[in-house]
Structure formats: structure tokens, C-alpha cells
């Protein structure tokens, strides 16, 4: 069944049946469009429009979720480019995809192809994506943020440990689950949860989004609670790209309680946001006491009015001991640092994202990094009566950021000190990144080098050959190894050698090429000098008055001879491939015995490593005639004394009077 499902999904992907639908995200205060969430739909040839619940689980099960997401996201980016007015897109990433460390780079590549700014992309993740491997999730999240994308925690409040995740990853947005929004106008409990989540989001400096808004009353209540963005059928159902243009010109439903109007919504129960401050405080205290985020309320005299258990634990003092005492008494090590922020908040200024280093009371060593916010609290007369303080321990996140920065710094130093020039290519052989050393060598900047721009520096005689070698290797998925010349800043052509190998995913599909280019001018000069030396030696050998034959060891194959040897032997010595072939030419000792292959001086020099004395033999020429020759042999050895070949000299004996006995 899984195989059939995979085949169905693969075929649908190939036919382009998965398309993006767009659902509006609307500013609750102004009614203006903030952006759209991208939702996948399957336009089935026989079943019609298939919703995600009927194919997303199968795509995750069959391992096609990544390809499906990339296809839909690519189409969404393309649609924005065609509209000519890019706006914010939100896309939900599967927990399975959030285990893939290459996810940020693949999204970045898709956005670059369609010139979609990553600053306008929000990645939505559910809490289940964080449960299996929080460390990997933190690393991926850091890369996404580094590329400019924003993070949104989807379905907030329904997971196992939502609040703990808020301090683990650098979220920008909270999405309140539609189960709370849909019932908030009729159930007090749902309304309280939504109010608490919105308050927590504001205290952490996060945007809050209400999902599942279907009625104006729900939108009004969300706005009154401070929620910023709404999403749901009230503003529009998910729609294909063809409907986007018309949707952009539609005026959103007017809210009954927009900013600046005098009326306020009636929710049919008197205790909206609680009638008595004491009751409201008690409820919030109960909610906050279970929060892993540190929370407290400071009055105008900088005294603690309330504090939750988490912040008390951070301070190392019980919650009860804080009450009625000042920050100078309870946290003297950081009181002078936080007091100015508290004073500004008491003046009506909301302050977000202040990082503090918490130190041990007994030492000056850093012990933790805290992210703090300071929000002024007002009474019914709009007077500031105190400050709501949020404290989140981000030590793990900062440690991860520092480790990542150190790793990048080490890598940068390694690249700068490396005499080679590292580079990366996409699966199709287009340059994605190149070491700055390439700029130093060729003068071509990064933008000029990207893609196939680097070929501008390659010698015209080498360019086509280099391209053919690379494309052949890329198609076969084999390593690349090619030599070519490039024009340096010194206007000199330099010899380079480029080598690269593919990186594949679990399915064996190439996702990147990693390689390096090295300067080989010295090697080329050495080769040329060696070749010149060989030519000079060959010239000397060719002018010798005696025949010279050179063979390799241990086979005995003839590899070289001079013209004199050819003239004496009247045949091509290169036909001898091994020592056993020597006896093909008949020769006799003076005693009349025929020379076997091993008897020839050249063979003895190879096999025994000896320098032979001159030996007179009668060499037949195959036509009934022959001649007397003087043969000698000597081994050729390398620097370690190993025999690598042998050389033989051949002289005609014109005054030989001996006869064969």
C-alpha cells in the first residue's frame, strides 16, 4: 500500500497536480491585508480538490513531503513575482522536514530563483517538531533566522510544553489555536486562555495571530484582547492563485470596535476580562505560576507585588520572600542595570528584548543570559501603576549562537589560510559560493563568479573542454577532476586544477557539489622541465654510434630505442611486450646454442640486476642472412635501489672472423 501511495504521489508531483492555495492574514485593528498562509491542495484528475488531511500524512510516510513542500512553495514564490507586489507568506513546515539541516539552504535557493525576499517569509512549526531533537531544531531555527526568515509557533496552547519552547527558539509569532478562538465568545475558559496567551505574547514582544476567525464578534474580541492578526473564513477561504488579484482589492469586513470608535462589543456576559482587579490578578497568578517563563509585577516604588515560581527560582529566593521588597534588596547584582528600564516603563514606555547577564551573588563570573521585557501596567484612568516584567532564560540559545559563531569563525580562518580555493555548486553545476581567494586571484567579484560567471576567467582554448568534463561528471554523478588556465590579476595565465565530489541525500539524489581549485603552476613547470630533460636525453641517445634499447621492469616491455638500434635490428623492437618475446628473434651463441629469452643480456639485467659483459651473438635477420652483434645489459634503479628497467647496447661486429661451432 505504501509503495502504491508513493507512486500515486510521485506521479501527481510530476504532473504538477499539487498547487498552492492562499488564505488571507488580516490586521485586526485596520482590516488591511498582512499577507497569506500558503496551503497545499491536490487537484486530482478524478477526485477533484483533495484537502491536506488526505495526502500530507501519506507524503510524510513515503518521504515525499520535502519535494511536495518545495513544489508548492516554489509556485507560491512565482505567483508573488507575477503579481509584482510581494507580500508576507506563511508556510507550515512538517516536523519531518524540521529534522533536515539543509532545509534553510533549500528554501533560500527557491526564494532566490523567484527573487522573493526572505524577510517576508514566515516558517510555521508545530510543537511536535521540537519534541524529538531540540538541539537540531535550534540549529535549523538559527539558520532560518540568519537568512532573514521569521518563525511562528503554530497551534499554540495545544502541545505538550508550549511555554518551554518559547524560550528555546527565537520565535517572532504565536498562532492561537482555532479551538480556543471558535469557542471564546461562548466559553469563559476559552476566553481566559486566549487573553493569557495574547498577554504572554505581548510581554515577550511576539506577534499574536488568532486562527479560525469566522464571526465578527470573534474578531472584535481578539482585537480587544490585544491580538494583532486574524485568519479564518471571515476574511476568506483558501483560494487558488487566480483569485489572488481579486482578493487583493477586496475591502475586509469592518469591525464593530475599531480604534477611534466609541462603541465597545457586548459579549453577553458581565465578567469580560474579569470585573475586579483582585480576581483578574488571582487568575493570572494561577496561570503564570505554572509557566517556565519568569514573570513579576513591580509597583512604582520598585517593590515586588507579585512574582511567579519560575522567576523566584531564577533569583534563588522564595516567591513569598520577594513580596513587598525592592529589586535592590532581592537582586542587588543587577538592580542598577534594570532600574533604568523600570523607570522608563513607569513613564509609559514599553521596552522589549533587553539581554542581561545574571551573575552569581558570590562571584563576578557569568552564570546565565536573560531576555527581559518591561511593559507599563495602567489602571482604568490610564495611569501607570506598575511594570509587568518578563524574564526568559536564553542561556542555551546564546550558547548555541556563540558556538555557531565560533564555528563559522574557525571555518573562515581555515578557508583564509587554505592555499586551495573551496567552492560549492548546486546539483546542476552552478556556483553558489566561492572562497574570497578566487577574487584575489582573478579579480572577479562574488556576483560575477556565481552561476557560470567563473568561466569568464578561463582561457578560451580551455573553456569548452572544462564545461564538457564538468557536465559529463555531473550527469554521471562522478567526481570532477579537470585542469585549465585562468587569467590572474597580474594578467598572467595560471594553471589550475579543480576537483569536486557530490553530496547526496538519503535517496541518493545529489543536493550539492563541494570542491576546491588549486594553483598548479609549479607542477606544470616541473612537468615541462621533466619533459624537456627527457627530450634532451632522447636526443643524446639518438645520436649515439651504438644501438640503445630501453625496457621496463619487471615485464621487459620495450619502451624506447634509438635509430641506430632500429638500423641494426631491421625491425621494430616495440613489438616485444614481455621478456618471453625476445626469443622470437633467433640468435646463437658462438658455441652454436640458441639464445632463449632469459639468455639475452637485457633480460638478465632486469631479472638478476647484473651488468653483463659484452657478449658476441649471431643474430639472424629472417631472410637466411645474419650478422654478428656485441650485446651488453645494465639495470636501471630508482633512488631506493629498486629495479625499474634496463638498458641494452648493440654494436655490429664487422671484423668478426669467428664461426658458429
UniProtKB/TrEMBL annotation:
Pfam families registered for this protein in UniProt: EAL, PAS_3, PAS_4
PAC domain span: 354-406, 480-532, 612-661
InterPro entries listed in its UniProt record: Biofilm_reg_signaling (IPR052155), EAL_dom (IPR001633), EAL_sf (IPR035919), PAC (IPR001610), PAS (IPR000014), PAS-assoc_C (IPR000700), PAS-like_dom_sf (IPR035965), PAS_4 (IPR013656)
Limits of the PAS domain: 407-477
Superkingdom field: Bacteria
Alphabetized Gene3D superfamilies for the sequence: EAL domain (3.20.20.450), PAS domain (3.30.450.20)
Domain (EAL) ranges: 2-252
Coiled-coil positions: none
PANTHER family for the chain: BIOFILM ARCHITECTURE MAINTENANCE PROTEIN MBAA, DIGUANYLATE CYCLASE DGCP
NCBIfam families reported for this sequence: sensory_box
Name by which UniProt lists this protein: Diguanylate cyclase/phosphodiesterase (GGDEF & EAL domains) with PAS/PAC sensor(S)
Source species: Granulicella sibirica
Amino acid at each position: 500500500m505504501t509503495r502504491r501511495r508513493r507512486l500515486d504521489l510521485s506521479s501527481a508531483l510530476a504532473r504538477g497536480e499539487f498547487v498552492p492555495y492562499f488564505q488571507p492574514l488580516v490586521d485586526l485593528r485596520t482590516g488591511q491585508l498582512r499577507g497569506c498562509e500558503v496551503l497545499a491542495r491536490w487537484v486530482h484528475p478524478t477526485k477533484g480538490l483533495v484537502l491536506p488531511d488526505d495526502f500530507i500524512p501519506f507524503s510524510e510516510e513515503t518521504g515525499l513531503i520535502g519535494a511536495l513542500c518545495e513544489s508548492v512553495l516554489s509556485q507560491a514564490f512565482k505567483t508573488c513575482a507575477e503579481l509584482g507586489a510581494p507580500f508576507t507568506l506563511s508556510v507550515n513546515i512538517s516536523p519531518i522536514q524540521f529534522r533536515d539541516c539543509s532545509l534553510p539552504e533549500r528554501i533560500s535557493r527557491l526564494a532566490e530563483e523567484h527573487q522573493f525576499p526572505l524577510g517576508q517569509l514566515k516558517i510555521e512549526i508545530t510543537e511536535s517538531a521540537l519534541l524529538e531533537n531540540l538541539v537540531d531544531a535550534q540549529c535549523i531555527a538559527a539558520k532560518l533566522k540568519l537568512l532573514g526568515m521569521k518563525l511562528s509557533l503554530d497551534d499554540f496552547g495545544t502541545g505538550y510544553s508550549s511555554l518551554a519552547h518559547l524560550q528555546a527558539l527565537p520565535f517572532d509569532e504565536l498562532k492561537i489555536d482555532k479551538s480556543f478562538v471558535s469557542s471564546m465568545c461562548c466559553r469563559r475558559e476559552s476566553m481566559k486562555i486566549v487573553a493569557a496567551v495574547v498577554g504572554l505574547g505581548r510581554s515577550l514582544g511576539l506577534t499574536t495571530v488568532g486562527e479560525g476567525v469566522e464571526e465578527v464578534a470573534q474578531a472584535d474580541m481578539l482585537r480587544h484582547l490585544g491580538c494583532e492578526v486574524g485568519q479564518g473564513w471571515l476574511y476568506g477561504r483558501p483560494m487558488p492563485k487566480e483569485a489572488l488579484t481579486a482578493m487583493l482589492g477586496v475591502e475586509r469586513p469592518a469591525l464593530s470596535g475599531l480604534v477611534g470608535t466609541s462603541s465597545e462589543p457586548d459579549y453577553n456576559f458581565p465578567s469580560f476580562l474579569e470585573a475586579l482587579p483582585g480576581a483578574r490578578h488571582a487568575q493570572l497568578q494561577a496561570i503564570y505560576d505554572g509557566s517556565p517563563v519568569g514573570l513579576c509585577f513591580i509597583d512604582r516604588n520598585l517593590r515586588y507585588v507579585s512574582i511567579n515560581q519560575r522567576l523566584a527560582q531564577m533569583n534563588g529566593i522564595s516567591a513569598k520572600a520577594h513580596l513587598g521588597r525592592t529589586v535592590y534588596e532581592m537582586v542587588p547584582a543587577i538592580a542598577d542595570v534594570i532600574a533604568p528600564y523600570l523607570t522608563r516603563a513607569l513613564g509609559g514606555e514599553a521596552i522589549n528584548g533587553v539581554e542581561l547577564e545574571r551573575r552569581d551573588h558570590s562571584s563576578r563570573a557569568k552564570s546565565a543570559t536573560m531576555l527581559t521585557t518591561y511593559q507599563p501596567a495602567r489602571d482604568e484612568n490610564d495611569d501607570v501603576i506598575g511594570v509587568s516584567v518578563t524574564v526568559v532564560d536564553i542561556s542555551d540559545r546564546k550558547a548555541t549562537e556563540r558556538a555557531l559563531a565560533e564555528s563559522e569563525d574557525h571555518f573562515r580562518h581555515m578557508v583564509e589560510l587554505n592555499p586551495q580555493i573551496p567552492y560549492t555548486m548546486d546539483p546542476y553545476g552552478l556556483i553558489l559560493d566561492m572562497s574570497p581567494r578566487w577574487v584575489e586571484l582573478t579579480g572577479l567579484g562574488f556576483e560575477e563568479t556565481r552561476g557560470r560567471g567563473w568561466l569568464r576567467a578561463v582561457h578560451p582554448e580551455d573553456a569548452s573542454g572544462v564545461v564538457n568534463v564538468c557536465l559529463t561528471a555531473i550527469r554521471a554523478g562522478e567526481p570532477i577532476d579537470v585542469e585549465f588556465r585562468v587569467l590572474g590579476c597580474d594578467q598572467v595565465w595560471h594553471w589550475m586544477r579543480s576537483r569536486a565530489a557530490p553530496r547526496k541525500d538519503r535517496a541518493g539524489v545529489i543536493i550539492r557539489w563541494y570542491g576546491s581549485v588549486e594553483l598548479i603552476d609549479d607542477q606544470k613547470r616541473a612537468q615541462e622541465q621533466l619533459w624537456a630533460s627527457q627530450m634532451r636525453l632522447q636526443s643524446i641517445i639518438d645520436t649515439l654510434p651504438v644501438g640503445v634499447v630501453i625496457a621496463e621492469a619487471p615485464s621487459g616491455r620495450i619502451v624506447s630505442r634509438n635509430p641506430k638500434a632500429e638500423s641494426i635490428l631491421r625491425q621494430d623492437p616495440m613489438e616485444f611486450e614481455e621478456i618471453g618475446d625476445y626469443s622470437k628473434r633467433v640468435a646463437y651463441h658462438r658455441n652454436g646454442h640458441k639464445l632463449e629469452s632469459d639468455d639475452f643480456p637485457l633480460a638478465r639485467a632486469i631479472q638478476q640486476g647484473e651488468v653483463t659483459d659484452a657478449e658476441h651473438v649471431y643474430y639472424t635477420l629472417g631472410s637466411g642472412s645474419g650478422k654478428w652483434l656485441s650485446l651488453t645489459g645494465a639495470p636501471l634503479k630508482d633512488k631506493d635501489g629498486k629495479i625499474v628497467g634496463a638498458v641494452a647496447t648493440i654494436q655490429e661486429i664487422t671484423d668478426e672472423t669467428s664461426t658458429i661451432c
